[in-house]
Amino acid sequence: MGVAELERVQRVWDRMKPNSAIYRFLLNDVQIISAGNGTVKAHLKVDRTHLNSRGTLHGTVSACLTDWAGGLAIASQGQEKTGVSTDIHTSYVSTAKQGDWLEVEGKASKVGSTLAFTTVTITKLVDGSPGPVVATGTHTKYVKQ
Length: 145
Hints:
Distance between the termini: 26 Å
Structural class: alpha+beta
Oligomer: single chain
Shape: globular
Strand content: 35-45%
């Protein structure tokens, strides 16, 4: 994982965050922990704003993380603009509750001149290491600049 990629991803996130009410609301406390060429990892502590009516992680949060981490994985490859979503899928595998820590890993499978394809895995951290998978996602973005 590279320092240059981490700085680039953080710069893109710092630019995106003030322009997105949903990102500010749901991902205000997300911590980007590493980035490499085509990858990004982040941690997020589940709080009340992330919960559904049953007291577990709301599916919207997982979908939002799929969108967010996919875009930043694209940014890690040198793109200053992360594109526009054309397709996004999230599969809900398990859940998390308030106080749990999530690890979000985004990977850019391919960044072409027009489209980019990403995958995202959201796991629950157990004793500081990735544990059960909470959700997986795929995300396609139109990236022609």
